[in-house]
User: Fold these one by one.
Assistant:
Number 1:
Amino acid sequence: GIQVEQSPPDLILQEGANSTLRCNFSDSVNNLQWFHQNPWGQLINLFYIPSGTKQNGRLSATTVATERYSLLYISSSQTTDSGVYFCAVRSRGKLVFGAGTILRVKS
Amino acid sequence: EAGVTQFPSHSVIEKGQTVTLRCDPISGHDNLYWYRRVMGKEIKFLLHFVKESKQDESGMPNNRFLAERTGGTYSTLKVQPAELEDSGVYFCASSRTLWERGSSGNTIYFGEGSWLTVV
């Protein structure tokens, strides 16, 4: 089946810093989503981005489908950005998740 | 529009007991999914309903897990008897008909999850 790899596995940032999270996938996809699991366990949908670039406040994402990767940018990070960021792609009707990037933002 | 709702949000049960988790998908969404994340591990697919039919249950770990979707509306996931390794967060998700194009058809929306702790 399709493989989804995320990097880095974990990241510690000082508040205000910027970061880039990466998601590589092994096959062509027509659905890619980024999620944030906050410290309370809730899974928040950040972007639906099978291709192109989208921005939402301090977050933006870019997917280059032909090269099978997606990037999530976090600018001016805040402590509330802490948690786990997951990339997921749709394969055979279901989402396949990467292992996630654990982000900790220190004040 | 109400999102995907799950109940209970937290549950603590003893090994050997039974727990039933409930999911109400977004109204009009034919597709309903169950996923889970055991502590520190990846979010894993459990199964997929299209209306009331099980489309794919390849992720169900064993026969202690039973999922139903009565009338194609809400769904329940029962764990009986629960074991320690079943502890984790169980997520439900829903989406519209798969063949619809555009983000509204392809985005899968997740509920806030049900934390299960088996002691």
Note: Residues 20 and 78 of chain B are 4 Å apart (CA to CA).
Number 2:
Amino acid sequence: SQQGEEDPQALSIQEGENATMNCSYKTSINNLQWYRQNSGRGLVHLILIRSNEREKHSGRLRVTLDTSKKSSSLLITASRAADTASYFCATDITGTASKLTFGTGTRLQVTL
Amino acid sequence: GAVVSQHPSRVICKSGTSVKIECRSLDFQATTMFWYRQFPKQSLMLMATSNEGSKATYEQGVEKDKFLINHASLTLSTLTVTSAHPEDSSFYICSGPRPSTDTQYFGPGTRLTVL
């Protein structure tokens, strides 16, 4: 089965609200990464958090990692319509930018 | 910045034909590239790791004789879907390790439809 399970599967919010997505995984990791995918397009890397880090920020993005619970969350603050996309977490076991195992994804819809 | 391109972006073919998909790293060299398959509204599943100058490494359950991978140069990997069938219809995405990071650059994907 896939490494990561994401929750919720779909999220619909209004512009200006915050969006929180959660990811759980099963084995030890070197790092966890979040990617964004617009419909029918490739993936864009958003943020990487290493196993020895607990929280990381990048612009309107905030990622947390709890290795004891094997879970991570992605918070997008002050969402915009342009944030509408699918968001995937991906775990890297070896830390060599090699095999990434992707979660099931959260489809985020931001309405005006 | 460095990017990965794929060609074609869309392809429609008849059942039984073969389709080749190219993945290029545009301004960085990649000794390793990765091929993923994504079904509608699902996540990406790694199919194989393409290794420059040697054989690809396939994930469990992926038929190596059906999905032929060639990594002939440091900037080009190709995936050939042989004797395609409708169940092979999917979105195929390649990626390459982003230099000096632990992340990957992803190509824009190829939508394959087998009639």
Note: The interface with chain B takes residues 2, 30-31, 33, 35, 40-45, 48, 88, 92, 95-105, 107 of chain A (CB under 8 Å).
